[in-house]
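Input chain follows. Return structure tokens only.
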Amino acid sequence: MSTKTIESPARIAVAQCEVHIAASPKKVYDLFLKEPHNWFYENEESKGKTPARCQPEIGGKFYIELPDGGFNVIGELTMLKPGKKIRMRGDCTMPQAVLMNMTIAFDETEGGTRVSIDHRMFGEFEDSAPAEFEAGWQDGIDKLKALAESK
């Protein structure tokens, strides 16, 4: 056995993105929690093989189901304000010592909802991680927009 101190300092970063959706905040909020498999995926293959799931309750998990029966937790739900805001906390399956808080807001606008994501991270992470999280979230909420506007 051994211990090791890592000399690199812990860092803080914020990734933010948003989209306007022509649907009510309640509808978009409900789709976010109840149908993540229809908007939180990388590609069509992963949509079927590793679907996203959500347990929509405080302490519930937002996770990816794996083909072997396992799962990877993205985060745990720590705040639910129906139709208004969701907060998750977790490591987004990263193996490094990192903590992330993700706040998703559903703000009513003229003609719909502005969905904004504020993803804050603290700890060890690669230089590219904040931009990768921003791109991933933007892709997801763009798919959420398409889903909400098609129903």
